[in-house]
Amino acid sequence: MSPRGLVSLPVPAGPVRLTRRRLIALAALAPVAGAALSACDGASGAGGPDPLIALARAARDDAELIGALITATPALTDRLTAVRQARTDHAIALETEVTRLAGGTPAPATPATSTAPPAAPTTATLTAALKKSANDAGGLVATLPAARVGLVAEVAASCASWMQVLS
Amino acid sequence: MIRPAQQRTSIDQASIDALQDVLETEHAALWAYSLVVAYLPTDLAKRARDDSDAHRRLRGLIEQTLSDVGARPVSALPSYKPPTPVTDAATAQQLCVVAETDTLAAWRSMLERTSDKPLRAAALEALVSGTARCTQWRTSAGMTPVVPTFPGRT
Q1: Is pLDDT of B119 > 50?
Q2: pTM for this structure?
């Protein structure tokens, strides 16, 4: 559903002066996110690989991990099916964006990297993976261009909430 | 994003507009929570009050920030029109989902409309905490998936 129900909005204009103190006040909203942002400031300069490739890979890895959990413990199927779908949908959306930026070249088949699923995954393994995925996505939010920042922030927020739900 | 933070004395109009849009939805969310409390059982009413406090804090910070940049914060409307009339606990929880979803959309939009790092950090934090609130209301309202897959997307 898309319940954009309560508000529709015109906006007055105003002159534009900002005290630094106040900017900091609003930033104080975000101790955790702020830390993530500054931690990643230098990491997303031009020239490296598209940072969304790693996020897409992580989404695929999380979905695989959830599949392994379900296989090992079928009783978890009901509890985990939705989050597996969510991470799969994240991966598809991120891969689509990677492809778009690459000018239509299909997203490189990102090799299964570091984390082969552990032999006996647990729910704790999953929540740790989701936490990392949320932090990694959140860390890119400071510097991504407008066209990409919304998607990446959505992935961060979704992973963070799934982590809470499953903890 | 070009000048170092220490030298910044302004934010651009697009950021101000985005803040005003967020403020509109925060006003509406506060109105929604004030409406629903009477329809909710004790535990959910407490949650509604806690969530209302969270929105009040966000509203205060936005209004402060706008005032400081010389923009007049938009005022709340006297009332808002829920998509579904609130008549019981179930419709009250649905309105909470609507209110949270509206604010998520506004905060997400702000991310796209500003490149100011402190504002982006604030918006991300609001998106994360708002998604958690939305998830709780979606859960108690029986909606699936309980966590929005793309929070703030409409």
Answers
A1: yes
A2: 0.84
